Amino acid sequence: MQAVWLEKNQIALRDVPQPAKPGEALIRIRKAGICSTDLELVKGYYPYTGVLGHEFVGEVVDAPDRAWIGQRVVGEINAACGACEACKNGRPTHCENRTVLGIVNRDGVFAEYTTLPVENLHRVPDSVPDEAAVFAEPLAAALEIQQQIQIKPTDRVLLIGAGRLGQLIAQTLALTGCDLRVVARHEHTQNLLKARGIRITTGDEIQSRRWDVVVEATGSPEGFNLARRAIRPRGTLVMKSTYKGEMNVNFSSIVVDEITILGSRCGPFEPALRLLEKREADPTVLIAAQFKLEESLKAFEQAAQPGVLKVLLNNN
User: Fold this and answer.
1) What is the pLDDT of residues 170-229, one digit of tens each?
2) Closest Cα partner for 36 from 182, 167, 161, 163?
3) Most buried of 47, 154, 162, 229 (most Cβ within 10 A)?
4) Predicted TM-score (pTM) of this structure
5) Does domain 140-263 correspond to CATH entry 3.40.50.11720?
6) Are residues 111 and 53 in contact, defined by beta-carbon separation less than 8 angstroms?
7) Domain 2-123+282-314: which CATH class?
8) Which of 229, 300, 305 is nearest to 41 (CA)?
């Protein structure tokens, strides 16, 4: 089968064997999305070799439980061992032996087929089109914030970054009724937010030490510094993106101000699918272009352009 293969910071479309893992479902990929993590892996963010991609919607063509065959599905990206201390204590996304779809020791979804354990799969409601379902994983990641902390309608919430993930975070936070502002640089991302009635702001307009919750979704030192300046004493700073390399941070001021710093990663799929089914979130507005799998190199070129949001690969 054809697949997008990453090796030594170079991607290529190559023929690889169709995957087969005992006890796992075989899934034909219908659509897959290129995200910032994929682009960073190409740059060398993490030493990964294999098939890229982790955002997908597909159809089960074989499974140990035959009831799954023919089902349209999305899948959680962390495959856990079920036996380590983290798994036994209800933290499977932090499994000590986990493999991660298209990221750590597990081939991903920029291919014709992939495999995942059945327990990782979630059925997609019939009313949710592929163009929306392919966003289930990042939408779940956006919802993880509300799994970790309660966002009250009275909270002043600042989101820094309105890219691929930031847009979904904004849509989900807006549903809480909080006093939300979003720092968005590009005119296109600003217009998407305005169309949903979400208020935007700039770094220069942000009042220091005012915000109850600040979500940092840029992955840049500048974004972190702005977040640190904005958060009030005893506020919560949510870190929603990874950082390459090291940063200088004044932890003394964080201690003095009693700031809570919260890392936030993967999230709940079922609530994400419910939001899509009810059309309370609309990730399809992020789609900038769609390419066939054999055009994947062109797709990556476009996805890497500044201001481009979601580029999809199609097997339909």
Assistant:
1) 999 999 999 999 999 899 999 999 999 999 998 889 999 999 999 999 988 899 999 999
2) 163
3) 162
4) 0.95
5) no
6) yes
7) alpha beta
8) 300
